[in-house]
């Protein structure tokens, strides 16, 4: 058992050693290290890679319904979203060949805690977010396993030194409703922040109903003028069908049946309980700070699914024959000690965490069904069960040192040593038509990894800085995959980057900019040996990819009558190495081997633009327009099927006034104002609509893609009152 006080002592000793290198102060002023705990620092002046910060005001301006709505304002983001809240956050094209169930290569940190989430996604209350910091490039030096292409650092709202309450209501298309209430109260020694919310929606797609009920809060106790203890609680209940029929087959059906009708539910019940607790301690020693966070997170899923027609009535599917429970539990402690001084800053951190992933499934009824992949009739039997349990322990030591060599030149060094022990056991009970059998399989493995970052910044002039750096990342294979492929190695990444940031006055308008060029090499990709055309095959290290691109962020003075925020990405992501794999077309055509070296990764557009324009008509009335555009992309890794790009226009009006001396905010918003029903996601892995299925060809085409169509034009209106 690791104790917090033991951590604190070791951190103080190590940080004192770091601080011994202090020399004469420079002209740069205090520099800061990148902390990953609860009080994430938001400065970017000495960052050696592209960093974006989205504050609370920017989040309100976007008016997001999920994280993708926020993150599309950031250069380099290549996220994929489907129906409901199903999404995966990806940067710089890493992992784009995957579906929705794999690790997306981005570390997600909420209030200092590395969050493990089902299918690589994350569910969080948008209204509770205070700020988001996005670090792009390999980031395992600070965040460990899975941070191949960056980190998403979310800081939720903390109690403030004032008393304020807010109530709000919002309605929108397809039965969307959201109601929130929150209060912040403080005394000399305490501050508390409480929030409650409820959100419901019928959804655009067939079987897309969702609702969320959430209560969260933080209580801070000020031990003295320099230290505090904060307790955080988030209890959320969800029902999210995720648009069970939102995925349609082929471009013709996408045009004629975008909602995925008929109304046949695949998932009858899909309950989600999210329970998050943390306790943090912070002590300010002037230019030194100690932070310790202990946490316990639980994501609990309960699904009844897979409807079958067991009464010989072809118009109904009356029995749901599958039931599953998935529990994700994690707990741990992180401690960091930082020193910020005139010319040197340092951090040393220690992290210990446990993760537990448990899945139980059972068949509720006897039935026969056609295997969608092989076309064969298969029998299934009541009381067949499967129980899988995956556990892991992580122990990591990491640090950072920033040093001003001169008044203009700052260097950064990071290092992390990571020990990760994974255990896996599965127990299944099946019937083969004659006998019942029980099988048990287990495996454990310990991974030892290291990662680093090296870089520097140089102030050309007071208003302009150039930066350059190299960083590494790693992702370990799952132990269950090592059962079949014991020689599988960790997946690694190396990111090289150079850029400049600063501000410039143009036509009496102060422009803040950041532009960088990068190369991210993704080595020993972990994936199915036969490519995504046969994604259920065993996994191995299947090849390498390379991302090259340019990211540009340009922001004007938001205090002006007319202002804008521009994000542009040029991204070229190709396979530099890949094992040839066999495309199995079954009875629809001959099998053939595919060599995809040099092919572009699927669902990656070369050009992406997001432009926000704000116009302050009066002191109270503001109009906002957003233009978001993506160029064409391929739906498959062999580049056989190309999907068109699209352009969206979102518009809104916001009116702020006073009512009884308090703030009243109103807004009206139209997303996708031009009603462009583009494809949110397009995945392709087999010839699903060949001649044998009533199609017209025996080759892979756009008619074989699995597509989620965007709802098109949607309306929202809301009101918020602060008192």
Task: Name the features.
mainly beta, 723 residues, disordered N terminus, 22-stranded antiparallel beta barrel, 6 helices, 56% strand, 5-stranded mixed sheet, Maltoporin, Chain A
Biggest sheet details: 22 strands, antiparallel, barrel
Give the averaged pLDDT, no decimals. 83
Radius of gyration, rounded? 26 Å
User: Approximately what portion of the residues adopt beta-strand conformation?
Assistant: over 45%
According to DSSP, the number of beta strands is 40
Number of helices: 6
**Name of the CATH homologous superfamily:** TonB-dependent receptor, beta-barrel domain
CATH topology: Maltoporin, Chain A
Low-confidence runs = 1-30, 38-42
**Second CATH tier, the architecture:** Beta Barrel
Query: Which CATH class applies here?
Result: Mainly Beta
Shape: globular
Distance between the termini: 46 Å
Share of helix, binned = under 10%
**Domain tally:** 1
Give the helix/strand class.
mainly beta
């Amino acid at each position: 058992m690791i104790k917090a006080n033991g951590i604190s002592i070791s951190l103080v000793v190590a940080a004192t050693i770091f601080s011994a290198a202090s020399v004469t102060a420079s002209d740069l002023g205090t520099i800061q290290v990148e902390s990953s705990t609860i009080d994430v620092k938001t400065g970017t002046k000495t960052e050696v890679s592209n960093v974006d910060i989205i504050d609370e005001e920017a989040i309100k301006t976007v008016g997001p319904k999920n994280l993708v709505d926020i993150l599309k304002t950031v250069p380099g983001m290549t996220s994929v979203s489907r129906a409901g809240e199903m999404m995966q956050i990806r940067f710089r094209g890493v992992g784009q060949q995957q579906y929705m169930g794999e690790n997306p290569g981005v570390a997600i940190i909420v209030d200092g805690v590395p969050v493990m989430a089902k299918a690589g996604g994350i569910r969080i209350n948008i209204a509770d977010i205070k700020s988001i910091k996005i670090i792009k490039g390999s980031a395992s030096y600070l965040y460990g396993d899975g941070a191949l292409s960056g980190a998403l650092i979310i800081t939720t709202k903390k109690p403030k030194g004032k008393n304020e309450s807010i109530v709000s209501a919002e309605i929108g298309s397809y039965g969307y409703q959201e109601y929130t209430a929150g209060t912040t109260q403080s005394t000399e020694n305490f501050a508390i922040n409480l929030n409650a919310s409820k959100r419901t929606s019928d959804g655009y797609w067939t079987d897309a109903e969702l609702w969320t009920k959430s209560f969260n809060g933080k209580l801070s106790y000020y031990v003295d003028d320099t230290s505090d203890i904060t307790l955080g609680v988030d209890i959320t209940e969800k029902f999210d069908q995720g648009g069970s029929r939102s995925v349609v087959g082929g471009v013709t059906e996408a045009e004629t049946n975008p909602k995925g009708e008929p109304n046949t539910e695949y998932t009858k019940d899909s309950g989600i309980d999210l329970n998050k607790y943390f306790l943090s301690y912070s002590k300010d020693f002037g230019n030194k700070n100690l932070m310790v966070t202990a946490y316990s997170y639980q994501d609990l899923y309960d699904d009844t699914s897979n409807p079958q027609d067991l009464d010989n009535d072809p118009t109904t599917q009356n029995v749901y024959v599958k039931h599953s429970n998935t529990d994700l539990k994690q707990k741990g402690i992180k401690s960091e000690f930082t020193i910020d001084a005139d010319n040197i800053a340092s951090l040393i951190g220690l992290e210990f965490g446990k993760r537990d992933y448990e899945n139980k499934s059972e068949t509720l009824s006897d039935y026969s069904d056609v295997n969608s992949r092989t076309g064969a009739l298969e029998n299934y039997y009541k009381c067949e069960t499967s129980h899988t349990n995956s556990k892991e322990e992580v122990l990591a030591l990491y640090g950072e040192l920033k040093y001003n060599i001169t008044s203009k030149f700052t260097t950064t060094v990071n290092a992390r040593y990571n020990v990760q022990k994974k255990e896996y056991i599965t127990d299944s009970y099946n019937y083969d038509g004659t006998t019942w059998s029980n099988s048990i399989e287990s495996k454990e493995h310990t991974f030892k990894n290291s990662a680093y970052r090296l870089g520097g910044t140089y102030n050309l002039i007071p208003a302009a800085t150039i930066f350059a750096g190299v960083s590494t990342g790693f992702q370990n294979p799952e132990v269950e995959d090592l059962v079949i492929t014991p020689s599988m190695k960790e997946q690694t990444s190396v990111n090289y980057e150079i850029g400049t940031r600063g501000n410039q006055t143009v036509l009496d308008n102060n422009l803040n900019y950041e532009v960088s060029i990068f190369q991210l090499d993704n080595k020993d990709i972990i994936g199915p040996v036969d490519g995504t055309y046969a994604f259920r095959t065993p996994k191995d290290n299947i090849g390498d990819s390379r991302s090259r691109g340019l990211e540009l962020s340009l922001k004007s003075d938001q205090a002006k009558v007319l202002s804008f925020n521009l994000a542009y990405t040029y991204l070229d992501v190709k396979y530099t190495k890949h094992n040839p794999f066999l495309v199995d077309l079954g009875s629809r055509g001959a099998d053939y081997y595919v060599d995809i070296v040099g092919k572009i990764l699927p669902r990656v557009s070369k050009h992406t633009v997001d432009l926000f324009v704000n116009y302050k008509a009066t002191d109270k009335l503001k109009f906002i327009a957003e233009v978001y555009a993506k160029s064409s992309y391929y739906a498959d890794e062999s580049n056989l099927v190309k999907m068109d790009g699209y352009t969206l226009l979102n518009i809104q009006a916001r009116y702020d006034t006073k009512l009884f001396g308090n703030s009243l905010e109103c807004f009206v918003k139209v997303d996708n104002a031009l009603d462009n029903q583009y494809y949110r996601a397009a995945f392709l892995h087999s010839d699903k609509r060949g001649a044998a299925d009533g199609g017209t060809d025996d080759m892979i085409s756009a008619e074989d893609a699995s597509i989620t169509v965007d709802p098109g034009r949607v309306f929202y209106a809301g009101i918020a009152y602060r008192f």
